[in-house]
Design goal:
The complex is a heterodimer of chains A (165) and B (197). Chain A is 42% helix and 21% strand. Chain A has 165 residues and is an alpha/beta fold. Chain A has one domain: Glutaredoxin, CATH 3.40.30.10. Chain A has a seven-stranded mixed beta sheet with strand order 2-1-5-4-3-6-7, with helices on both faces. The longest helix of chain A is centred in the N-terminal third of the chain and has 22 residues. The relative contact order of chain A is 0.21. With 197 residues, chain B is an alpha+beta fold. Chain B folds into two domains: 49 residues; 111 residues, Sandwich (Immunoglobulin-like). Chain B has two helices and eight strands; from the N terminus they run αβββαβββββ. Chain B has a four-stranded mixed beta sheet with strand order 4-1-7-8, with no helix packed on it. Classes of the chains: A alpha/beta (165), B alpha+beta (197). Chains A and B meet through strand 1 and strand 2 of A and helix 2 of B.
């Protein structure tokens, strides 16, 4: 019984530690970064101060990312004009694969390439996808790990509430 | 006669009644005025209180900012003592032949900074801004600095150019500036590393 409890406790603590890695950023200032974008220009997070920013970490080998990205793109096209920005941070080693997938999915939000994985480390990304919502003040407000159908409704609520602040 | 007396009594009674009601009205209006004055006084007091709270908040904010500045300077002094401090700056003059994308900085062969520039940042450099790219602690003695500038050169061709400089770190802080200038004769950019005296 004790051994079972210990094992269960250990498993829970591992799960909790994993899920806390990135969400530990909630309430903290969003770490700044600059990355090369699919458009060729360099984009820096701090230059979006004053806007609500969603940072979506994704990879070409991640199935849920493929499902999620078109839905995020819809949110982006809907709220872009009222101060919402979406930065898709791709963590593949080869950015060409990412460009192919972006073209295939037909998404319009800026995609940034983090081939050196520096930004993923900054945000303690240990699941795929990871979606971070940053408010107008530059503070991390929500961190979501993974994607399940229905998450987009939660994103919608959170974006709308952050835009209203 | 008796009728006259009665009429006189009636008139005097009416006058007395009228006087009473006027006195009552006056006292009512006085009390209303007093109440309004009290309300005004209360309002101005609450305004003053708000103003003083606002002032306190502003003072507190200023104190926090001052404290933050002191802590920042203290932290910098502790982390980068003046004797071992080396700071690297970057500046750009005109920038017609070079569109800066990134700078990679190596000290003694070890990468210490890799900075990507956004359009806005390049604009700030072109307008005369000087950016502190990196700050480090180095031992006294000889060191080598290598800066690799990446961007678009003339005719928007990909351009990658390095500049190397050996410098001696003595006692006291050292400041080095990486300068990007245009060489009009050659229609090429030029990259120079200078020491601040």
């Amino acid at each position: 019984m004790n051994v079972k409890n210990c094992v269960l406790g250990f498993v829970f603590s591992v799960i909790a530690a994993t899920s806390l890695a990135a969400s530990g950023l909630t309430g903290q200032p969003a770490p700044d970064f600059a990355l090369k974008s699919s458009g060729g220009e360099n984009l820096r997070l701090s230059e979006y101060r004053g806007d609500v920013v969603m940072i979506n970490f994704w990879a070409t080998w991640c199935g849920p990312c493929r499902q999620e990205m078109p839905l995020l793109d819809e949110l982006y096209s809907r709220y872009e004009r009222v101060g919402f920005n979406l930065l898709g941070v791709n963590i593949d080693d080869d950015s060409r694969k990412a460009m192919d997938m972006v073209a295939e999915l037909g998404v319009n939000f800026p995609v940034l390439f983090d081939a050196r994985k520096e930004v993923s480390k900054l945000y303690a990304v240990d699941a795929m996808p990871v979606t971070v919502l940053v408010d107008r003040e530059g503070t991390v407000r929500h961190v979501h790990q993974g994607y399940k159908p229905g998450y987009e409704d939660m994103y919608l609520d959170q974006i709308r509430s952050l835009l209203r602040e | 006669m008796a009728r006259r007396i009665l009429i006189g009594l009636g008139i005097s009674l009416m006058l007395a009644l009228g006087a009473t009601s006027t006195a009552q009205e006056r006292s009512a209006s006085d009390s209303a005025m007093a109440a309004s004055l009290a309300a005004q006084a209360q309002q101005s007091e609450s305004h003053q209180r708000f103003r003083s709270i606002d002032q306190d908040v502003q003072d507190l904010k200023k104190e926090v900012l001052d404290l933050n500045r002191d802590l920042f300077l203290l932290e910098e002094e502790l982390l980068f003592p003046a004797n071992s401090q080396v700071a690297f700056f970057i500046s750009m003059d005109v920038g017609e032949y070079f569109d800066l994308d990134s700078v990679n900085l190596k000290v003694d062969g070890k990468e210490v900074a890799n900075y990507l520039y956004t359009e806005r940042e390049v604009g700030a450099l072109v307008r005369g801004g000087v950016q502190r790219l990196h700050i480090a602690n180095l031992k006294t003695g000889d060191h080598e600095l290598t800066a690799i500038f990446i961007g678009k050169g003339p005719n928007t061709r990909d351009y990658r150019r390095g500049a190397t400089m050996s410098f001696n770190k003595g006692i006291g802080a050292k400041y080095l500036e990486l300068e990007i200038t245009d060489r009009v004769k050659k229609q090429q950019p030029e990259f120079v590393i200078k020491e601040w005296e």
